[in-house]
Design brief:
By secondary structure, this protein is of the alpha+beta class. The protein has one domain. Helix content is 47%, strand content 16%. It has a three-stranded antiparallel β-sheet. Strands 1-5 form a two-stranded antiparallel sheet. It is globular and about 65 Å long. It starts with 7 loop residues before the first strand and ends in a 5-residue tail after the last strand.
Length: 225
């Protein structure tokens, strides 16, 4: 049977991040959660919200993110705490979000026949958590470790990895930071602002994150004109 121009083809797995935010199931919060998710698809509105909060209440934003000091550092890419269990159970609603990372280096990797190298770098970089503040994803030590771990290297793939590792790692790191700003600085912040407005009390807001999400995309074939 001939392959149709509209057939779907399975692509190699991609790296992404999966997040779950646990909200109390209370009617008072529905509007804020719905609107935050509704407008969360509109990049300009999210950026406008973040800019407004950073400009108007900078001290509050910096205080909220004091445990992640690099997150709001504009020069970041140029230059365990136990929680007691809740005292009572309550109904919750869970918002699940998948963040798909699409690298701007994909076309270059295809041109150089090094798509597997790009994929290896992303699978190496994105899931690694728990670093010291001084340890950068794009650092020489990280690159050396990656290069040693993936030996032996065909020459063209070695050259691609040496040339682009730092830039790919920085791009992936920025993606992770942008994800954190969206989840914590936008989505969760919209929620707790409503908690304060309604004069309700929530001791904790729980967010889980899985940085080893593997996403397979079955994509429709695009006929060549």
């Amino acid at each position: 049977m001939p392959i149709s121009d509209k057939s779907y083809f399975l692509n190699r797995s991609e790296r992404g991040v999966f997040a779950e935010i646990y909200f109390p199931k209370r009617a008072a919060y529905y509007g804020s959660i719905f609107n935050a998710l509704r407008y969360g698809y509109e990049e300009n509105k999210v950026k406008e919200y973040l800019r407004t909060n950073v400009d108007d209440i900078l001290d509050d934003i910096l205080n909220e993110f004091k445990n992640i000091p690099d997150l709001l550092n504009p020069r970041r890419y140029t230059a365990t705490k136990l929680h007691a269990p809740p005292s009572k159970e309550e109904a919750t609603q869970i918002v699940r979000i998948m963040f798909r990372f699409e690298s701007s280096f994909t076309q270059q990797a295809i041109t150089d026949n090094c798509l597997d190298v790009l994929r290896a770098i992303l699978f190496w970089i994105i899931p690694q958590r728990g670093r010291l503040y001084e340890h950068k994803l794009w650092g020489k030590a990280e690159q050396s470790y990656f290069m040693a771990r993936h030996k032996p290297w065909p020459k063209r793939k070695l050259l691609f990895a040496q040339k682009y590792f730092t830039d790919i790692a920085k791009e992936a790191g920025k993606f992770l930071d942008d994800r954190a700003l969206f989840v914590f600085g936008y989505l969760v912040r919209n929620f707790w602002e409503q908690v304060v407005k309604e004069e309700l009390k929530e001791d904790e807001i729980w967010i889980t994150g899985f940085f080893d999400l593997v996403l397979n995309v079955v994509k429709q074939n695009t006929p060549v004109p």
